[in-house]
What we know:
The protein contains no helices and 8 strands. It is mainly beta. The two termini are 22 Å apart.
Amino acid sequence: xxxxxxxxxxxxxxxxxxxxxxxxxxxxxxxxxxxxxxxxxxxxxxxxxxxxxxxxxxxxxxxxxxxxxxxxxxxxxxxxxxxxxxxxxxxxxxxxxxxxxxxxxxxxxxxxxxxxxxxx
Length: 120
């Protein structure tokens, strides 16, 4: 992942990567990776999701879905379920930098929940 220009970009030149997490729901095989600049509240602090049902063949490949502003990058990722119901298939992780104010409150790390398929 460190060689992918969409992950390790100019906004995240010496980024860190969370542990990679793969999840197969019976139809889609997804790979989740959180990247960021440790401790930074600016730059490319992302959670990315890649559909790996087909091989990623280029270091310019773009993620299937991306969530931005994950302060300082992300911790390890936990996945809870596979379901077609909204909000039933989610991923959870923590941020690696504290928030100045929003969304978690001043000087607090964030616990984040996103849906698996859209990272929303």
